[in-house]
Design a protein that fits this description.
This protein is α/β, with parallel strands linked by helices and 399 residues long. The chain is built from twelve helices and 19 strands. The longest helix is centred in the C-terminal third of the chain and has 32 residues, at 258-289. It starts with 11 loop residues before the first strand and ends in a 14-residue tail after the last strand. β12 and β13 (248-255) form a beta hairpin.
C-alpha cells in the first residue's frame, strides 16, 4: 500500500501522473543526440490527505547518478543570496558563542562560507558525497566527501547545529533519516538545533504549476508536512516559516528527550525477560517437588501466552468462561476445566495468569469459596502472593 513519505500515513490519493520523464537537474548531456536519448524515470505523484505532502510513489534513489555529476540547480541571484543570509541569521539567533555546525549535503559550501566569514570561532563541517565536495573544500571548509551517518557522526562531532538545506526532498525515506538523527542525538545526549530547508509545493498546487515536479524530488513538502514529519520522528518545533516568496519552507527544532527513555526501557525489559522465565519455572518446580498441587487460572489469550512463555504444560488449567471448558490451551495442550472443579478437587496453589484481571479473578474465587494455600500472581520477574486490590472503575490519569 502506498504511504506518505513524510508522515507514513496511508490516507493518500493520486495527484499527478505525467508518465516517465528524463532527469531535469542531473547529468546534463553534452550533445543533442545524447540529450534526446536520455533515459526516462517513472513519475507518479500522490498527495497525503493528512499532512498535504506530495511524493513520487515510483521513486528509486538508487537509480540517480549523483556520483557522476553535480545537481545542476544553481542560483546566484541576489534574492537567493539574501535568502541564504537570512537563514544564516536565523541560525545565529540564540547561538552567539562559538559552535560546531554541520551542513548535511553542503553542495559547494556556499552557505557554510557565509557562516565562516563571521570569524566567530565557529567550526564549520561539510558533508558532501558528490563531486561538489572539491568546491566545498576549496573554500577552506572542513569537508568530508561522504554521507552523514547519524550513528557515527553525532557521537564523533557532537554538533551544536545541524543544517540540511535542499536535501530532504531527494531522499527515499526522509522521515526515517531525521528520526535516526533524533535517536542518536538523544542516545549521545547531544541536542543540536536542526535547521531544515526544502522547496515548498504549496504555490505550485494553488496555481496548478506542473513544472515543479521533478524525478529528482521524491518529496514535495508543504509547510505542514515538513513540521508533521519532524514532530512524528522525535523532534520539537521551535520555529517554522515560508521564505523566498513562499517557495521555500524552513523548519527549526530540537530532538526530544523521550527517545532515550524508551531506549532504556527496552534495554531493561530485555535484560529481565529471561530472568523472569528462569525465576517463574524454578518457583513452580520447587513447589511441585514439595508435593504441592498447582492450577493455572485462565486458558486463552494472555493466559495462554503466560503458559507458553514459561513452558508450563504439566499442571491443571481452569477458567470461569463456560465456552472455553473442554477445549485445550494452544501450544501447551492442557484441557481447560471449569473453575468450579476446584471446589471438588482443590489445589494447594492457584496461579492467576493474567495480571490485569487479577482483582476480578480474586473476587470470583472468594465468591465461590474456592480453597487454596497460596494465590500467586506475576509481579515483575517473580511470582508473588496476591494482595487484595481495590477495584477502580474510573479512568486513571498516569501523566
Amino acid at each position: 500500500m502506498t504511504e506518505c513519505l513524510a508522515c507514513k500515513g496511508k490516507l493518500v490519493e493520486p495527484l499527478y501522473n505525467p508518465g516517465p520523464m528524463p532527469l531535469f537537474a542531473l547529468n546534463l548531456a553534452r550533445s543533442r543526440k545524447v540529450a534526446k536519448d536520455s533515459p526516462v524515470y517513472p513519475m507518479n505523484f500522490y498527495v497525503c490527505n493528512y499532512c498535504g505532502h506530495v511524493f513520487n510513489s515510483d521513486f528509486d534513489y538508487a537509480r540517480l547518478p549523483y556520483e557522476d555529476d553535480s545537481n545542476l540547480m544553481y542560483n546566484q541571484g541576489a534574492g537567493w543570496a539574501a535568502h541564504m543570509s537570512h537563514i544564516a541569521a536565523i541560525l545565529s539567533d540564540g547561538n552567539r558563542e562559538a559552535k560546531t555546525v554541520i551542513d548535511i549535503g553542503a553542495g559547494d559550501g556556499g552557505f557554510l562560507d557565509i557562516i565562516n566569514q563571521r570569524n566567530d570561532g565557529t567550526r564549520c563541517i561539510a558533508f558532501e558525497p558528490g563531486v561538489d565536495s572539491e568546491k566545498c573544500s576549496a573554500r577552506g571548509i572542513e569537508t568530508y566527501a561522504d554521507y552523514f551517518v547519524p550513528q557515527r557522526d553525532i557521537r564523533k562531532f557532537k554538533p551544536d547545529i545541524l543544517v540540511c538545506r535542499h536535501v530532504l526532498e531527494h531522499l527515499q525515506a526522509p522521515r526515517d533519516f531525521v528520526a535516526e538523527i533524533a535517536y542518536h542525538a538523544d542516545r549521545n545526549q547531544v541536542y543540536p538545533t536542526f535547521i531544515a530547508e526544502v522547496p515548498c509545493i504549496t504555490k505550485a498546487l494553488d496555481t496548478h504549476r506542473i513544472t515543479d515536479f521533478l524525478y529528482e524530488h521524491a518529496s514535495n513538502f508543504t509547510q505542514r508536512s515538513l513540521q508533521v514529519m519532524f514532530e512524528s520522528a522525535g523532534w520539537y518545533t521551535n520555529y517554522d516559516c515560508l521564505a523566498y516568496n513562499g517557495e521555500v519552507a524552513v523548519w527549526v527544532g530540537h530532538p526530544q528527550h523521550l527517545l532515550l527513555e524508551f531506549d532504556k526501557q527496552a534495554k531493561d525489559f530485555r535484560n529481565h525477560t529471561w530472568d523472569a522465565v528462569y525465576n517463574v519455572r524454578n518457583e513452580l518446580a520447587s513447589r511441585r517437588l514439595a508435593g504441592k498441587r498447582i492450577a493455572y487460572w485462565g486458558g486463552t489469550g494472555k493466559s495462554a501466552a503466560f503458559l507458553n512463555t514459561y513452558h508450563l504444560d504439566d499442571d491443571r488449567v481452569v477458567d470461569s468462561d463456560i465456552f472455553k471448558v473442554g477445549r485445550h490451551v494452544p501450544g501447551t495442550g492442557q484441557e481447560i476445566e471449569d473453575s468450579d472443579a476446584l471446589l471438588d478437587e482443590p489445589v494447594d496453589v492457584i496461579v492467576i495468569t493474567t495480571r490485569w484481571r487479577a482483582a476480578d479473578i480474586y473476587a470470583e474465587i472468594k465468591e465461590k469459596g474456592i480453597q487454596y494455600n497460596e494465590l500467586l500472581v506475576l509481579d515483575g520477574p517473580y511470582l508473588c502472593e496476591y494482595a487484595e486490590e481495590e477495584y477502580h472503575a474510573d479512568t486513571v490519569d498516569t501523566r
